[in-house]
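Let us practice reading a record.
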Amino acid sequence: MILLDTNVLGRLTAPADPRCGVARQAIATLFKANERLVIVPQNLYEFWAVATRRPGSPPAGQNGLGMSARQAGQWLDFFRRRFVLLPDRPELTSVWQTLVQKLNIRGFRAHDARLVVAMQTYGIRKLLTFNHPDFASLPVETLDPASV
């Protein structure tokens, strides 16, 4: 099983993004290799926030995709059909709290830690992401879509 990071989902939906083709090719290659590609509820929440935020909107450096609610909803439906949506496990919150306290994680990195904990609760070892540095200090193996 491989968890898809939200940045991969966002790039799948943005044909003008230079990494759109890379994301799409990585997904196709992994499916051909019979990998089980999964998402968790957090991916959907994060995607919605990015998809419906206007380009150039705060926070600085985190541009949105400028989609309408209808467009973003259609993409969520697509993701739920195309990938396996694993529900959050009951222990996720307590395991997450233990991890963020142990590693002294602050700010936005707490979201990355939550994805990693969701992976741990399911025994998922690999994360497909464009943002390797964000996960460097976390107990997870990252895969770059360009190297798949």
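A brief commentary: The radius of gyration is 15 Å.
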